[in-house]
Please model this.
Amino acid sequence: MSLLMKSTPILVLLLALVNCVAADYYYVGPTVGGIIGLIILILDIIAAVEILRSGKPLAEKLLWILFIVLCPLIGLIVYIFFGRPRSGGL
Model:
């Protein structure tokens, strides 16, 4: 019993250090996710401006923008491959 009482402060200190290290380790995820989210947001805004400036009918413009707003990453990828006008040559 006395051994447990003597080692309790050491255990508490070790657990506190593990908690601090774990907090620092997991802090990287939200930062990287935030940067990636910001990049996707900027690309979505560029795509929306491109859609609004295109010569597509109004209904098609609204559908593309709605698709990009509701599904940002998937909508952007689908718009890049299928929604943009094709160039004449390879």
Summary: Residues 20-24 have pLDDT under 50 and may be disordered. The two ends are 81 Å apart (CA to CA). Residues 7-83 form one domain.
